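Task: fold both queries, return tokens.
Query 1:
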Amino acid sequence: MSNDFAQFQDAFFDEVAEHLAVVEEGLLALEQNPEDRDLLNKIFRSAHSIKGGAGMFGFTAVSQFTHKMETLLDFLRNGQKAVTPAVADLLLKSTDCLKTLIDATKSGAAVDDETVQRLTGELAVASDLKVEAKVKDTPSKSSVISGLTSTFLIRWTPPDWLFQRGLDPLQIMRELRGLGTLTDIVMDQSRLPDLTDIDPEKCCLSWSMQLATSKDLKVIEKVFEFVREESKLVIEPCEAPESKDKIDSANNASRDTLHEIRFTNDEQRIEDGAPKPLGEILVESGVVSSAALDQALAQQKKVGEILVEQKVVTSQQVEQALQKQRQQESTAQSKKADTASIRVDTAKIDKLINLVGELVITQSMLSDLGMRFEMNQLHVLLERMAQLERNTREIQERVMSIRMLPIGTAFSRFPRLVRDLSSKAGKKIQLVLSGEETELDKTVIESIGDPLTHLVRNSADHGLEPPAERMDNNKPEVGTIRLNAFHEGGTICITVEDDGRGLNREKILAKAVKQGLIGENEKLTDDQIWPLIFKPGFSTAEKITDVSGRGVGMDVVKRNIEALGGTVTIKTALGKGTTFTLKLPLTLAIIEGMTVRIGKETYIVPLLSILESIQPKEGTVKTVVEKGELINVRGTYLPMVRLYEVFNLQPEYTDVVKGILLILETEGERVAVMVDEILGQQQVVIKSMEQNFRKVEGIAGATILGDGTVGFILDVRGLLEIARRGVPVAA
């Protein structure tokens, strides 16, 4: 496959993802407003765009399945069918199936053909349509003849720009064949110029053909919808051919279908570098003949099974061919580049271009000044350096803003999730979203999907009560889950709130004691008890469901949020509800940091983690056996970490009184870190340690400082763990 064509396909898959989101969101809204014709039209247009694009690229399975959805949607928007809960549910399941078809088309993976065929049948029944035979089945004579009620003569002269827009006339033929039996196809070459004058990008061909079908004229016209512009198209009824002709046509169609199956059996797609189908590998290896393969393909089983049953090949030979196919598939997958893309508002691009222009002007002014610089012009140099700094900072901010996306893209999955959870749990749940326009770095948005999903599922299953229980407690029978996002300082806060039972303090304590997480007589505050639910394997669910109750999920939430440099806190009231608050950095690429010095080394502390800095007095530091050093900060003892011991450095001060202590906090826990000096505050670009070296406890990453040296960024959670052990870590 050429790189240019691959780029077009990438754009198609990006657009399909957007259309699928429109379809799913529209269907969820349609359940609440079944008479909304504008909404139905919007859903139909998106489905139609998916079908047209898939057809243009030859993704037949996607195109045909979407066509079934489109037919039902067309009946709904024209008022011929009513939007019932069953219809909406079928369309949502079909949307899920369409997603898997598209993912399989993109990755080359296998498809659950049974599910596709079942939903295809259900869509046909819902549309009062006859269920058509599977494309890869060989149609029998009787099945071809039955249902063919009309014959149409089609004469089509496409516009000369057909190929230039990536349109394929063969795809039109395939779609027509899907409507019935296509016969008497004649290609007119009279418009072809001499070979010396031919333009391969222009279409100079015309076709005439006959289509025997049970469909009406409108359905046939829709096949030509994307090529109708400037085409000469005539579709008119004609006398049907005799039965014998129909049967002959059916036999020809069967052979054509088998020919196509030969290259698509076992759910494989043929493209440059893609693995070959199993049947083709067996023929190339000389294990079976082409005729034997054709005979096997005519049956409705996998090629390997048929050939073994017929004793044409042994199971070992099939396994060898499958092994070769898997190797080819692995090679093909490794060649595929997982390219990410992002759509950017043109206003952001325009501002960035203007800033680059200003930067060029400033650079030109500095170059001009450098050629004739004198000391009496020092103030001019400083002014222009300041201008350069402002330009650089603003460009940095604008470039970062390009990666910023509304968090609504992460929230969009939850209306469907809550709908399904509500149905599965037998509860009535409404989801309220707010702050969807709040912008966050694309990488962070992609990473918070799973933690948010766990929290929403937890609220639906554990938090909210069944309708009867809610009414007994004088609550509305419909429970509410609220998702909200907002900026707070240099971070973004996301809250997941429910008005359910709230956390049960006694249950959590009893479970924690039973699992040995705390002592039986240990006294804990509420702020120490609530985080226990994040311990691996911890669950207070009375029974296991397919939603939750296995003690899996909440520990994943905590781990994933911490990996993003964020925190998660809990606020709850028994009988009133629970609120989880996630605090995250706006971006993972750049952080605000405080630079500190230990000896000759420079480290960066994330500014969000710093509560204060102090210079301790004599007698405030105590040593506890097996606990390390503690410092008394206004009556509260905090664990203390000497960074020079952790990283095996030569400090300027070993006496705590002469050094400086930074009080750092993460997840409600605090630690005091001793340094020699605070150098200042600055933005730093984070570089991964693990990609270039290895994971170092207490270090979150590295950056290049202004003087060209490397500075390490401290991991506050890691330092807390080190302080808890009370054991220095060698560098």
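Query 1 returned. Query 2:
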Amino acid sequence: MSKLGAILIGTLALFVLSFSLLPSAFSPLINWLGPIFGVSFQTMLAILFFTAGNPLVYPIVFATWLAAGVIVGLLARGIKSAIVAAPIIYGATLGLLGLAIANIVMTVSSTGLSKGVLPPPPPGTNTATILNVPVFRQFAPLLISSLSSASAPSIGSLASVVIPPIIGNFVIFIASAVAIGFGVPKLFTKFAIASRLHLGGPSSAPKLPKVIGALALVMLVFSSAFAGFASAQAPFSYAEAVVSVINPNGSVTNYYAFASSSLTLSSGGNSISSSSLSGTGIVAAIVASQNGSLAFLPQSMTSGISQYMGLLPPTLAVLLYQGTCTSSQSEASSTSTTLASIFNLNDLSLLVSQSVSGSSIGMQSTQEICFYVYQSNVPLSSMADSFVSTVLPSVHQSGLINIFSQGLSSKYLVPGATSTSVNSSAILTGFFDPQFLSSFPLLGQAIQNFTSSMGIVGFAGGLATTSNVIHSSSTTHTASFSYLLNYGGSVSFASDSTLSAAGIGVPLPGASSNSFSPSDYNFTLATNNPQAMSYLSSSQMNSNVIQVNSGQSVPTQQLGASFTGIFPAYLQVTKSLSQQASGNVLVNIVVKNLDTDNLANLYMNDTQFANFYQGALSIVSGSPSNSSVSSLAPGASVTYSYLVKLSGIGTYVSPPAQIAYNLNGTQFYAISNSATVSQPNAGAAQALGALVSTAGKSLDIFLNTGGYGAGIVIAALLGLFALAGFMEYRQFVKWRKL
């Protein structure tokens, strides 16, 4: 009966040991998906790590199985018993892993995940952190490949990753168990028994969103600055634009775009230039973003990827080559290494490489394009200094680049750095081939006026959005360029610029839910290009276009806009989550009217929070939707509250609540901040309880036990431990009589 004792106690010891040694590197996954899957997710991660983790890569895995083998060897007290006990314990461990996975599958079927909906990731979590946690980095290439190809990984590919470490860990486990069971003297083993009895008194992010997101940034910068009025210039040298766009929701988006036919980026002896890339057909873009900088893109672009925005790494490097990934692999590797060196991206690593046919992206079917997407955890706040010191001097020394440089140096373009900083921001630089990109949808339209014979062109740029800039119950508004840019100096065009443009713009009709007509705006813009001036003057917009010679300065006060329209009220909407003594969590949403007019028919909707965590969140009291407030006077505030109970582990992220209201007969919407609250990670006892519960559910499903499955499992476990203890006690009594 010593085999039974070894099996039961050895299994329990291994399980407890695995949870006590679970690496903190799993916290990104636990914090993100733990609230949905609960303790079973932490259970799965723990067992997966200690079974499928490579013992040669993770010393803790090797040490754990070695220690577990020693425990089993001491308990088995013999080579035969150890040989019998070890496979049963290892098999039971894999069985527990299967139960945890089964529970997760059952949870998925009853949550929004079954519809492909992911919960918002907590702060600091993105694909770079998720795909680099232990063990998961082994599966990451397979998972990304399957997501991008819309097909499940093959059994063979999965087996090639999983089976070798599983076999290796089992060999370590049984070898140590047998060695201890065979090598320890019988007397020592008996003393160990007596001593023991006495002491006994735990995405993919899909590839496509990242590629689309990065290319959308490039497209927007160039389309906003150059589309429609950037004419072919020969020879091309330098173009620049700084444009502020006033959105119908009262926010302002600032675009900065600079393009040069001879750009060189260099640092520490490493350099990359337009001339060195000539003929390779490459588009290289370093994109650094912060605070959801893609959120202000038109809905038509973001509808399919908005749920993954938070998973974008802080820094992306996107390389495009004509041809297959195999043919361009060495070029991409060399370019990415150089970019990583220039920008101090020490952790830059390949996220995915994917060849696509031209027909799938609107190009000729005979063409083939390879996308390379690299990721890094370096945030925009770190990249900003590199831009100021490395990129901007390489682009130009004067002109509109000074506005961009000042924005980065003053941290105005770094969200959260100061009280006046923008809400979200992105900066980008790289090289593009106009002829190569001209065949892409949208991108081609934005650069169609560049000469097709032009070589590789270098670019730098940025985009940032600030909310609550334009707000008033008045229908007449005036905004100056300097106010929108938070810039006090004058506007100066570069002396050798082929095209310069500065001013205030309007979203294209239909973009960003634009309810305004261009005729509602009266713009003042400045340019040094006669063809651009002719286009702007003849367009539908009521534009006052100033032609300025290259090298000439323009007071920013002359660059402004006056327009009519009702914008949203100036509201302050704040959400907070707080733990209560009862163990529940209180959700508070405070709405304060900072405007000058009354608001009517307020409606609060926070149902998205509960929808994301179905099965792991329940409403205790109150409601996440409320329409009881009929009016809100200027300066007044209202608080919406409801109480929830959380049953998962990790960090719950509550998405912004939405407030609908009526202002002067027009309905508007405002959103709050997002808020987080953390539930402590489960210990071994809680995890064991989750497994018991999962096994009980399995019994209920397969044996129709009428809801008593968990009780049956607990009774069986207690009975087995009691039997093992009794038999071990009999062995102890026999030893005392010797």
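Both queries returned. Flag for query 2: The CA atoms of residues 194 and 329 lie 64 Å apart.
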